[in-house]
């Protein structure tokens, strides 16, 4: 169920409609702190922020039969689709694991961004209709791998998957990607600075 992280929510229609999706299975993490700071910054500028915490949602993250068979959407996923339709700007906060997305976030995309909702396929040799066109996205990504190494040695597979093969495929334009790394060797002072940076991002 979507809910504000903290603070008062301004009236609908005043400011941008922002949906934040926190895509980690951990109930307490740096990502949660970054998300809360971003939301506080955005609300201070009059934006409306709603939040989906995937670790609190009740759904099967496995697309059991692919797109060839129907799989009933759980209540939380139906709510998530309504929130995505409501939003003008999507903010994804998640860690990079094994160079890619956490399986919970990947499963969320598998189950929620379905044909007929996020895209409409026209066959193998034709492009898809981008059913979520007109929305923008922003990525707040935590990693243990140093940013430069992730980009130049690993070729940033998680970033390419999110920006190109998921969001862009559905018509969502990524406007900003911010990396917070390396987390494992960071100091408490560095993490507090990242939280302040996330709040500043929300104000922009």
UniProtKB/TrEMBL annotation:
Transmembrane segments: none annotated. Residues 16-199 form the Flavodoxin-like fold domain. GO terms for molecular function: NAD(P)H dehydrogenase (quinone) activity. This is FMN-dependent NADH-azoreductase. The lineage of its organism: Bacteria, Pseudomonadati, Pseudomonadota, Gammaproteobacteria, Pseudomonadales. Gene3D superfamilies: 3.40.50.360. GO terms for cellular component: cytosol. Its EC number is 1.7.-.-. Coiled coil: none annotated. Belongs to the NAD(P)H dehydrogenase (quinone) family. Keywords: Oxidoreductase. InterPro entries: Flavodoxin_fold, Flavoprotein-like_sf, NAD(P)H_dehydrogenase_qn. It comes from the Bacteria.
């Amino acid at each position: 169920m979507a809910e504000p992280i903290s603070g008062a929510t301004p009236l609908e229609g005043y400011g941008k409609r922002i949906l934040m999706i926190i895509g980690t299975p951990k109930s307490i993490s740096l990502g949660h702190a970054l998300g809360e700071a971003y939301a506080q910054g955005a609300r201070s500028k009059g934006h409306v922020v709603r939040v989906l915490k995937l670790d609190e949602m009740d759904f099967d993250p496995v697309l059991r039969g692919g797109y060839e068979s129907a799989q009933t959407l759980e209540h939380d996923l139906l709510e998530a689709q309504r929130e995505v339709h409501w939003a003008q700007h999507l903010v994804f906060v998640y860690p990079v694991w094994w160079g890619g997305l956490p399986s919970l976030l990947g499963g969320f995309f598998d189950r929620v961004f379905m044909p007929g909702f996020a895209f409409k396929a026209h066959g193998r040799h034709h492009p898809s209709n981008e059913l979520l066109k007109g929305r923008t996205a922003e990525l707040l990504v935590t990693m243990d791998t140093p940013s430069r190494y992730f980009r130049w040695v690993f070729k940033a597979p998680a970033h390419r998957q999110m920006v190109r093969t998921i969001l862009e495929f559905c018509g969502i334009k990524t406007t900003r990607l911010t990396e917070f790394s390396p987390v494992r060797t960071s100091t408490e002072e560095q993490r507090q600075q990242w939280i302040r940076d996330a709040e500043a991002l929300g104000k922009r």
